[in-house]
Amino acid sequence: MALRTIEWMPAGAASLVPGRVRMIDQTRLPGELVYLETADVRELWAAIRELKVRGAPAIGIAVAMGVVLAVQAEDTADTAALQKAVDRAAEYLAGARPTAVNLFNALDRMKRTAVRLGNRPPAPFKEALAREAQRIRDEDAEMCRAIGRHGLTLLRDDCTVLTHCNAGGLATSEYGTALAPVYLAREQGWTIRVFADETRPLLQGARLTAWELMQAGIDVTLICDNMAASVMATGKISAVLVGADRIAANGDTANKIGTYSLAVLAAAHEIPFYVLAPTTTFDLAIPNGGHIPIEHRPAEEVTEGLGRRTAPHGVKVHSPAFDVTPAGLITAIVCERGIARPPYETSLAQLLRGKKPTP
Amino acid sequence: MALRTIEWMPAGAASLVPGRVRMIDQTRLPGELVYLETADVRELWAAIRELKVRGAPAIGIAVAMGVVLAVQAEDTADTAALQKAVDRAAEYLAGARPTAVNLFNALDRMKRTAVRLGNRPPAPFKEALAREAQRIRDEDAEMCRAIGRHGLTLLRDDCTVLTHCNAGGLATSEYGTALAPVYLAREQGWTIRVFADETRPLLQGARLTAWELMQAGIDVTLICDNMAASVMATGKISAVLVGADRIAANGDTANKIGTYSLAVLAAAHEIPFYVLAPTTTFDLAIPNGGHIPIEHRPAEEVTEGLGRRTAPHGVKVHSPAFDVTPAGLITAIVCERGIARPPYETSLAQLLRGKKPTP
What is the 3-state secondary structure (H, E, C) of A15-26? Predict the structure, then answer.
C-alpha cells in the first residue's frame, strides 16, 4: 500500500467542506514521518515554499486544495465575494514556487471551475471547488496507476529493477511514475526488488526513494550512483525504470542527471531501459533533445550539500541538473495511455492523439 | 610543481641524520594545508594510524623514515643496540596499518639493510639507514615519473582528461600514478584540463584530487560520478586516466568502485581508457578478474559518511569498495617500464620480465 503524499481530510462524512489538507512533511524525511495538517492557506503556501511538499504533480494538488482552504475560510453569503477569494488565493499561491508548470495548470483549472459555477450559493460553490481539487488529486492517482498497469506488463514476478532519483509516490499523490509498476507488482503479490541510486548531488534516491519503498515493505537496496554498472554486471537487474522531465518528439528524454549514464550502461549490459512519465511531459514541439535547455545548479550542492564542506574552497564545479538520454537508448516510453516503442516520432504522436500505437 | 606528500628533512647540510619527517596532514584537507613535522616515531605511528598519511606508497615511505627516527634517537656507541632498535621499530610500525603490503615491504627492506650494515659504527650506521629510507622515497618518485613519461606519450597538448578517485601525488611521494602524466604535461607547459569524479562514498576525488591539482595550478573541474557520461557526450574528454589496485594476468583491473562504470562509458563514447599503475600491482598469479576478492564497505559510509544521516535508518546498502574492469575495455596499461597493449597476457608478462612489448 503506497503512502498518501497529500490528501484532503473533510471534517464530516456528509460533505468535503470544511476540511483540512494533510501532507507528508518531506523536509523531515528520511529521519521521521511527520504529517502536516492545516486549514490555513498561508501555512500551505509556506509548506510549498519550504519544499515540505515537492514534485510537480504533488504541488499542483497542493495549490488546488489551497484555493479550497482560502474559500472555505470566507464567511459570506455573497458568492461574488467567493469568486474574488478564488482569484486572490490563486494569485497568492502562484508565488509559492513560481516556475512550476503543474502549479499554474492546477490554479487555472480551479479558476475556470469557479467561473463555471457562476453565482451558485456559497455552500454548494465551496463544495464544488473542493470536489474539483479532489478530482485533480484523483486524476493524478489514476494517471500513476495507469502508468503502473502498462509498466507492469514489461516486468515479471521475481525480478529486480534499478531506479534513479525519485519518480515515486512522494512526487505525486501516491504511486509515482517510475515506481508505479513496483507498487502494483507488490499489490499483486509479486516479489520485486529495487536497487535505488542515491542520486548525487541532492540524494533524492537515498532520502526519498529508499524511504518510500521501505515504508511500503518493498525490498530496496541503496547504492552510490557509481555502483550501478557493477550491479548490472552481476546479471541481477531485469530492467531500469526512470521518470522524465521532458520528452522530445523523437523520444529523446531529459531527466535527472545520471539518467543518461544509466541508459548507456543498461545498453552495454543488454538490460531494458524504460522511461515512465505522463503525457504532460511529452513536448512534441521540440524535434529532439538538442533543443532542451539544461539547468545548471550551484556548486555548493556538490561541495557542501551534505552538511559539511567536502571539496576545496574555490574549486570549479560542473553540475548540470539534467541530462538528455537519446531515444536510441530507450527500450520503451510508458505513459498513462500505453507504451510507446521506437520509432518514437510516430508512437508518441499516436499516443497523444489517443490512438493505440502498433505494438 | 607537484607537492611533496612526505619527505625527510635533515637538520644540517652535511648529513641526513639527525633529521625529521615532514608530511601533509591529509585529514586537514581540503580545508587547510597543514604540514606535520616530527622526529618522534610514536607521533609518526599515530599519523599513519589516523590516516594523516595514506596511500600504499606513501605509507611505505613513512614507515621506512620511522625506522630512522627510532634509531637516531638511540644515544649509544653500541651498534648491536641499534640493530635491536631497528627490529623493535619495525615491529612497532608494522602495527600502525596492519594490512598494508607496501608497509611490510618497506620495513623488510630496512631490516635487511640493517643486517647488511653489520656492526658498522653508530654514526655511519644511522646515516646508511637514512639513505635507504631516502632511496625508497626517491624510487617511488622515479617510478611515478616514469609512469608519467610513458603516459604522456598517450596525450597531447591542449587536452582534457577525466579521472576517478585519487591516484595522485597524495597517495605517493609526489607525482602519483594516474595523475603523473598530468603533472608532467603541466611541467612541459602543455595546456591540460582535468575533470575529477568526486568518487562516492568517501569523496577522494573531491577532497584530494581536486585539491592537489588546484595546488599545482592545474585546471580542474569537479563533477559528481553520475555526470561523467554527460561530460563525455560533449566530446570534450580526450582520455580517461585511472589507477589500479590489482591487475590480473589477462589485464582485468580492480580499482575503486566506479572505475568499471567509467570504462563502459568511455568505450561507448570512443574515448581511450588508460590504467596507470606500478608493476607492483601486477598479479600474474591470478588469470583474470574473477579471482580478485572484492571488499565490501560498511553501510554508514554511504548513509552518513558526509557529516549527517542522508538515508533511512535500517536501509539495506550494497557498497563494494572496488570493481573489476574487464581487459577488453582497457585501451592500454601504463607502468613504470612502459605501455602494455592487448593482448595483455603477453604484454604484461613481457613488461614484468623487463622486455619491451611490441607496440
Answer: CCCCEEEEEECH
